[in-house]
Q: What sequence folds into this?
């Protein structure tokens, strides 16, 4: 059986974060393992608070998972802090697994999850080693500084990401379109 890791925040409503990742893995016939990087108090209507797990505890979780089973893929979500981003980048850089980075910048209700140091750590450490980056439209603008979706995609590819999928579901219209680009 294939193994995938989710390294993400815990959403008590189960609509996002590692809970949603684990359900998706199961639906695809993949055994999911999870490391909690942040704890949140949220539901689909409101996000009240988020607290990052300490990077030492996060790394300890990764070591426990690694000693049990190596992943075919690692998917990140809300990481919660600059230190956690750096820890994940260091750990993922020595894995042979595909690294899927969902750079969760803010909740759909507008709660901001990243400070400037965390944003910079993503840009310098995690995005350049990603197999696939999956920002939504506002996150792609936040990270790349580009309003144009094609220019934003080029930014991710130019810093080293192998592929990018910009999710258009946060547009202010009745339908959404996604944009995919890779280095090939």
A:
């Amino acid at each position: 059986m294939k193994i995938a890791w989710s390294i993400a925040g815990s959403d008590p409503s189960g609509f996002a974060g590692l809970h949603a990742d684990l359900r998706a893995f199961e639906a695809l016939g993949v055994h999911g393992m999870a490391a909690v990087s942040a704890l949140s108090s949220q539901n689909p209507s409101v996000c009240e608070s988020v607290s990052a797990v300490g990077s030492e505890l996060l790394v300890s979780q990764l070591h426990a998972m690694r000693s049990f089973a190596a992943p075919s893929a690692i998917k990140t979500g809300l990481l919660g802090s600059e230190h956690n981003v750096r820890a994940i980048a260091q750990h993922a850089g020595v894995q042979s697994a595909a690294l899927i980075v969902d750079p969760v910048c803010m909740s759909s209700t507008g709660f901001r999850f990243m400070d400037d140091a965390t944003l910079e750590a993503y840009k310098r450490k995690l995005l350049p080693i990603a197999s696939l980056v999956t920002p939504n439209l506002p996150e792609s603008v936040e990270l790349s500084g580009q309003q144009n979706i094609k220019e934003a995609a080029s930014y991710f590819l130019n810093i080293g990401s192998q592929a990018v999928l910009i999710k258009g579901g946060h547009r202010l219209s009745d339908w959404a379109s996604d944009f995919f680009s890779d280095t090939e």
